[in-house]
Structure formats: C-alpha cells, structure tokens
Amino acid sequence: MTGGAGVTVVESARPMDAAHAQAERPAVSVVVATRNRPHLLAVAIGSIAAQSYAGVIETIVVFDQCEPSHIQESDDPLRPVRITRTTDRVGLAAARNTGADLASGEFLAFLDDDDEWEPAKIERQVSELERSGADVCVTGITIARDDRRVVRLPKAAELTVESLVARRVVAAHPSSVLVKRASFLGPIGVVDEEIPGSYGEDYDWLLRAAKLGPIAVVEEPLVLVHWGKQSYFADRWQTIIDANDYLVAKHPEFAASPVGLARLHGRKAIALAALGKRREARVWARKALRLSPRDRRAYLAYVLSTGVVKVDFVMRLANRAGRGL
Description:
Helix 9 runs antiparallel to helix 10. The relative contact order is 0.11. The longest helix has 17 residues. The protein has 325 residues and is an alpha/beta fold.
C-alpha cells in the first residue's frame, strides 16, 4: 500500500500467529539491492510480502550509491522490512554482501529490484532443501521483455561444475537462489567483490556453490525476470572483458574445458568487436574456434568485426529470445 509522501509501506499478505510460524518453519532473509528505481522496487518487495510461505520472511533493502527513499521499514512479525545502504563498499556484489551481513534467517535469498516472485517460490524451495538436504536451491524463471515471455527451466544435471563451466545456465538466475545462510557465510563464501563491475558475480558464486555439492532444483518458473528494465551491461564492454579474464584466472576448471574456455574467448571477441577493436576481436575468435569449432559466439564476433551488423541489434534479438551474451 502507499503511505504519505509517496512512500510505499509493505504489509504482510497473510494474517497469522508469528510465534507459531517461527516455531513451525525456518526464517528466510531476502536481500534486495537497489539503486534509484523506486517503482520497480515497490513491486519486487510486494512480491516478497505476498509469499504463501507460513514462516517469517525478512526483507533487507540495500540502497547502493543512493539515498534510501520510498520504502519504509516495517516491524511486521511475519514480513519485517529493514533498510540499509552501502558505504565504503559499493556495487552490486557489495550490496548483496551488505544485506547478507545483516540477515538473521536460516535461509538466504536474493531478489533483483526489477524482478518478481511467484507466491509459492519460497515455500517450494524451503521444502525442497529440507527434502534433499542440499545447501542451495534454484527455480525456473520467466523472462519478460516488451510483449514477449520466455520460460527457462534449469535441470539438476546442468548445475554440476563441469556443466556450468561448459555452459552458463541462464535459468539459474540469482533472483531464484535460496541458500543456507551458514553455507553462504561459510564454505561457499560471499559474493566476490573483486570481480570488475560485479559482472558475472552470480555465475562465479554458482560455480563455487556447485563445487560444494549438488544444487537442488524446483523445475517451475517461480521468478519473473524483466529484461530491458534493468541497467544491464550492454554498454560496458571493457568491464565485460576485464571480468571475463578475471573468471578465467580464478577458476582453473576453464583451462581443462575447451568448450567452456572457447565460450569465454568468444564472449571476449564480441566485446572487443563492440569496442571497435576489430583485429583483436578476430584474434580471440580464432582462439575460440581452435578450442571449439562450433562456438557460435566466435562466428558472431567475426560478423560483428566487419561492422556490417551492429552489436545493439544482435543483443536485442538475443534478449527477445531470452538469451544473453
């Protein structure tokens, strides 16, 4: 609901005895990192409040590089809302870690400020983690762009270290992750704040989670991901190159995976072509094709290096199909 001066006040969608809920179901903390997008943020937080989960869901809104606004804290016993901001550490990775540091729930989730959850999301995931004994669970997503929607459902077999190195799974989106907080703060580790521009921080984290043990999957599209509304990386090509090189250096598994390394080389080649560095783009495209002659990104980089086809056009087509770089 909306309070005075355009401030959004989030209320629990389900009246319930809080003490009973706490005793019956483990508490969940949700970190929502945001920056200057109050209307999208209100929708995202509303989808948390509307969860059918019978336990406590604590929302921690982290304002990154901006002043907190439009959202009020709430002491609702079932759906409390807390507000903080980044200070000396900034960026998406830092914002997520800042929220995680304040979390109190047994489980930890993340929700991008331009995404939404289906009401059954947390209930399905907590039940699956309790059933499987896994530390991490993801769900499927629905990608919304303009008037088009595309469903992506991850499979457990796609979320092993070997499979993730070879192919990034778009369906395992950060807004779908639920993890045991002790594992996030312990053996898996927090989000890597050293990755340039926080690009691929979710992929790096998922790789580390897969190294710890099996990732559970709820094969339902329980997250609505809005592509096109977010400040994405299409115009930050040098950041993509730097982050790409960082991931290759950090994870030795790429060196043992010709297909996986070719994929990252092909991505780098596309970014170089976007920057107008056509000769370098072709060099990295050739490296990718020597590793994996079927790498589609390498062929695309060759086309882009001619200047005949524009990168923005290709990105729009990929996003409409629910795919990224």
